[in-house]
Amino acid sequence: MNIKRLIRKSVRTLEPYKAKEIVCKVKLDANESPYGYPSLLKEAMKVKTNRYPDPEGKALKREASKRWKVPARNILLSNGSDELIYYLVTAFGGPVLYPTPTFSMYGIISNALGEKTIPVPLTDDFDIDIKKTEAKIKRYRPHLIFLSSPNNPTGNCFSEDKLLKILEISPAVVVIDEAYQPFSEKNHLPLLKKYRNLAIMRTLSKIGFASLRVGFLISNPEITEVVNRVRLPFNVNSLSQTVATEVFRNYDNIEKDIERLKRERDRLYQRLRHLKGIEVFPSEANFILFRTKGARTLHRRLLKEGVLIRDITSQIKDCLRVTVGTEEENEIFIATLAKLLK
C-alpha cells in the first residue's frame, strides 16, 4: 500500500503549524495571558458530562451579544479561531488573499483545502500595500480576504482608510481577525451595519482562556448561516461553553487585568527601546516585535538561560517576538537580554 499516492496533492508538500511545548523558566512565546482565573471554573463542575453540549451555545451567545452589542443570531461559535478559518475557506472557497507576514493558518488551511492563496507583502512599516492589494483583488477576484488587525506577528493595526478601501472595492467576504482587539483601541464591530461583506473573528484565548479554545464569528446572518452549514455538530464542548459564559459575566474584573497588561506592554516597550542593538516596533497587541542582529543565535541563547520567546526570522528578517508577561517575567527577560547583548 502506497500511502503517499493517496495523499491529496494540496497536502503532499504542506508544512504543519508548529506549536512546540518547551519547558522553560519564563515562557513568553505563545501570546498567552500571564493571568488565569481558576475561580471561574466553579460553574463547570455542574456540567452534565454524560450529555452532549448545547449545539448552538445559546447561553454563551446571549452573554457575548450583551457585551458586544450585536444580535445573538449574528454570532457563530467555534473551537478556536483556527476552526473558523477552516469553516470560512470550506464555505466560500478561494482564491484567498491576505497580507504577509501574518497569522500562518490563513495560508496553511487554504492550501490544505486546495485553494489558491494570494499573499500580498506589507509595506516596510507593516501596513497594507493598498495599490498591490487592489491590483490583486481586481486580477484574482478572491472569495475571501483575511486581515489580522492588530496583526500577528507585527503587533500593529492596519490603517483604517485602507481597511475601508478593501471593504468597498472587494466582492469578497472580508474577514477582520480581531484576536488581539482587547489590547487595542480599535473596534470594527460598528462597521457590520454598513458592510454586508464584513465578518469579524474574536477569541478568548489571548485574555487568559487559551485552554478553552473558544472563538466567535460575528457577521450578518447571511454569512453566519452559510458558515453554519459546514460547522461540525457540538463543536464547542460544554465545559468551554460554561466557563466562557462566566467570562462575559465577569468581564469587568478581567478587563482590569487587560489594562494592567497594556501598561506592562508599554513599560516593556520603553525598556527595549533603551537597549543597544535593538529596534523595537510599537504594538497594540499583547506582544512586542523587535529586530536585532544575530536574532536566531540570540533566541537560542535566551532559551539556554531559561527564557523562551518566539523566533520570527523566517517571516521577518532578524526579528523576534516576545509576549508580554507579568512584571517579574518581563524583568527576567529584559535582564537576560541585556546581559546577552553585551
Written overview of the protein:
By secondary structure, the chain is of the alpha/beta class. The chain folds into 2 domains: 105 residues, Alpha-Beta Complex (Aspartate Aminotransferase, domain 1), CATH 3.90.1150; 196 residues, Aspartate Aminotransferase, domain 2 (3-Layer(aba) Sandwich), CATH 3.40.640.10. The protein has 12 helices and 13 strands. Strands 2-8-7-6-5-3-4 form a 7-stranded mixed beta sheet, with helices on both faces. Strands 9-10-13-12 form a 4-stranded antiparallel beta sheet, covered by helices on one side. A two-stranded parallel sheet has the order 1-11. Strand 3, helix 5 and strand 4 form a beta-alpha-beta unit. The N and C termini lie far apart (57 Å).
Give the helices and strands, then pairings:
Blueprint lengths: L2 H4 L2 H4 L13 E2 L30 H11 L6 E4 L1 H13 L3 E5 L4 H8 L4 E5 L8 H11 L3 E5 L11 H10 L3 E5 L20 E6 L11 E5 L1 H10 L7 H12 L1 H23 L5 E2 L6 E5 L3 H10 L2 E2 L1 E2 L7 E5 L3 H15 L1
Parallel strand pairs: 1-11, 3-4, 3-5, 5-6, 6-7
Antiparallel strand pairs: 2-8, 7-8, 9-10, 10-13, 12-13
What pattern of helices and strands is seen along the backbone?
A: HHEHEHEHEHEHEEEHHHEEHEEEH
CATH topology of the largest domain: Aspartate Aminotransferase, domain 2
Q: Name the CATH homologous superfamily of the largest domain.
A: Type I PLP-dependent aspartate aminotransferase-like (Major domain)
Q: Structural class, please?
A: alpha/beta
Major β-sheet profile: 7 strands, mixed
Number of strands: 13
Mean pLDDT over all positions = 94
Low-confidence sequence ranges = none
Question: What is the overall number of helices?
Answer: 12
